[in-house]
Amino acid sequence: MSGGVTACYCYAVTRALPEEELAGLRGVEGADVRQVVHDDLVAVVSPVAAEEFGEAALRRKLEDLDWLDRVARAHSAVVDALAATATTLPFRLATVYLDEDRVRQVLRERRGGFAATLDRISGCSEWGVKVSTDPRQASAPPATTAAGDGSGRSYLRRRLAARNTRDDAWRQAVEAARDIDRALTGLAEARRQHRPQSAELSGRPGENVLNVAYLVAGARSEEFLAHFAELRDAAGGCHVELTGPWAPYSFATDEQPATGEEPATDEEPATDMGPATDEEPATDMGPDEPAARSEAAN
Fold this sequence. Notes:
alpha+beta; Alpha-Beta Plaits; 2 domains; four-stranded antiparallel β-sheet; globular
C-alpha cells in the first residue's frame, strides 16, 4: 500500500503464531497480513486505507455487491488459512480500528473473554445444516378455472388444494427438521440457531424451516457426518443441506449449550453472511448479510 493514512483491518484472534504461518498470505486489497500481539493473544490484521474503510465510506461500500464480494472472499481466505493451523476466532467482516495500538488495547481489555472462547472452541469446527421444503412437493396446481366452468367451484377447489399441498409440505419439512436437529445436537458440543433464509438469499427454491450451526469436535466429525448422511437419506419430502467445515464463526461469542430448540417457523428471512460482532469475533457464519464496524478516520 502506498501513501496516505492507514487503519487496521482485523480478521481474527488466535494465539501466538510462528511468523512463517503468515508468510505470503494476502488479505483485503492484496495487503500484507501481520500480527498484533498482547501476551499470548494475537490479532491478525492488514493495513488498509483509512479513507476507504472509515465508517461513512463503509456504509456506502456495503451497498456495492462487487466490492463486498471481493472483501468477503479475502476475509474468508485469511480466516480459513489461520483455522487450518490454529484455533481461530473470526472478527466480523470489515472490522477496522484506527491503528495497531487500538487493536492491542482491545486484546488487553477483552483478554479473558477471548482466551476462554479459544479454549472452548479448540479442536472444533462449525457445520451448518439447513432443511427446506421440497418445491416439487409444495408446487400448486394452476389456479385457473376449466374452460366453460362458470360456477367457479373448480377454481376454489384448486386454490384449496394448492394451500393444503403447501401446508403438508411445510409440516413434513418441520417434522424432518426436528428429528435431524435433535439427533445432530446430541453429537455436537454446542448449537446456534439462525433465522431461516429466504429463497432469494439462498438461491434455492423452497421455504427454509431450519438453519442451524453445530460446533463439532474433531474426534466426532466422522460420526457426525455419517449420521447426517443417514438422516438426510431418510428425510422424505424435503431438501436437507450440509455446509462446512468452517471456522467457528457462530460460536465465537456467547456460548449456547447444545439444547434442542424447535425449528424456526415464521421469523423474518435470515441474513447470515459470515459473521462476527463489533469488537468481538464473529457470530453467525453460515453466511449472510455482513455487518461492519470502523474506528478509522473518514
